[in-house]
Amino acid sequence: MTLNPAKDMQPIFPAVDAVPKAKREKDCCICYGNVKTLSRPPPSHVCKDYTGTRIPNKACKECWEAHISTEVEVKPFGQVACMFCPEILVLNRQDKKLCDWSAVGARIDNKYRYDMKYTNATKYKCMARCQNVNTPLQSYFRSTDGRIFTCNLCAFAVCTDCDRPEHVGQTCEEHQSTLPAHHKEAEADTTSCFKRCPECQIPFSTEKGCGYVQCAAGNTMTKKGVVGGCGHRFCEHCLIPWTGDGSAYLGGQMQHGTTSTGALCRYYVRDHDSDHGLSHRFSHQSQAEMKAALPEELHEQFQQQVDMMTADAEKRAGDKMKREARNAEAGEGEDAGSKKRKISKSNIVDSEAEDDLDADPWQSTEAESPPPKPVKVSKRGKKAVGEPTGPKQPKQISPETKANREKQAVRREKRKGLEQKKREMQNPSAEMLAA
């Protein structure tokens, strides 16, 4: 029996073409992890660098999920920036190619909070008779419900613009004018502690420090519920926008105006520039230019603020000079050390010059003694090594330091006495045993 290798003998292993090709793993440019597929934004979004050149924008799904969940924490869903460029992404939660949206929601503390951010909803609490510690926050949509919030439990209506009961047929200002005097005083005290964003009217508390304010973008979860914001940047004192038309970013320092109490904004009379992360600083004008741009009734107030700032600067300069003088007297400052080094070096040079003047120029130099070795000065400049110094000046000690040292000495004596008694109790002598 003859075998035909071409027909009768079959290969033990299948052909190479029959084996399916495995997907080659790729490296994520963010986390450098090996994954089979990389995700990129929608095709309509093109990432470019500052030169206008297209840059790669592929990353693994986990990196996109982490980035989007972090952005949603501080921004509305429609203002999420790209991970590779500052442009806004046009996201669609139905798009499964970019990332797993359920994982994005799981990364945030509360899934309900994530849904509130996506729908841009806010929460409101009834201020009427049903208000107690167990009263839940109720959904309120400004775009559809208007300015009136109606409680689902007691049907009490509240005006969200002024946080007062609904005033039918009256504006908020007219209703405020009809309130009793003590209500107005309480309202004035509250207004001094809280202000409203000029864009979305969300209230915020005023604190000490810088006047740069950015409205909490999106919805921020607080202990009192979810509070919505718009991300608007403005000055806390005079409420002018920080960027855009009519802002100090474009018009300079003179764009700042007066506060609600009629006082000049502190940024108007500030003696140095501020940028707060913007691409360039405010243009700084002279005091004469700023004063000329104000109406005459504000000239006196402007001069008072300038004088106050000048006096404060002079006080700080005087305090600094006093500190430097104290350090120089104690020999602890850098100025005192440098002066000592200069004096020691100048003494060496003067002594050498005097020796040269006293020497006879016609005398032979063969019998001359070797020149004296230069005096070595320590690095700290406190004393010259190899040359006797003058009498050591006693160090000045303050009365407080003396009192503290005396107290420490008394404590040491007491401690020694207690230790001696303890040793005697542990190892009693014959006299103590006899007693």
What does the model show?
About 12% of the residues have low confidence. 35% of the residues lie in helices and 10% in strands. With 435 residues, it is of the alpha+beta class. The longest helix is centred in the last third of the chain and has 32 residues.
Primary descriptors:
12 helices; two-stranded antiparallel sheet; 10% strand; 435 residues; three-stranded antiparallel sheet; alpha+beta
Quick overview of this protein structure:
The protein contains twelve helices and 15 strands. With 435 residues, the protein is α+β, with helices and mostly antiparallel strands. Among the domains are: 23-119, no CATH class; 251-327, no CATH class.
Rg calc: 40 Å
Cα separation of the termini:
127 Å
Shape: extended
Q: How many strand units?
A: 15
SSE diagram, text form:
Layout: E1 26-27, E2 34-35, H1 61-74, H2 101-107, H3 111-119, E3 122-124, E4 138-140, H4 142-145, E5 148-150, E6 157-159, E7 164-165, H5 172-177, H6 181-193, E8 194-196, E9 203-205, E10 212-214, E11 218-222, E12 225-229, E13 233-235, H7 248-251, H8 287-292, H9 299-330, H10 334-358, E14 376-377, E15 384-385, H11 399-426, H12 430-434
Antiparallel strand pairs: 1-2, 3-4, 5-6, 6-7, 8-9, 10-13, 11-12, 14-15
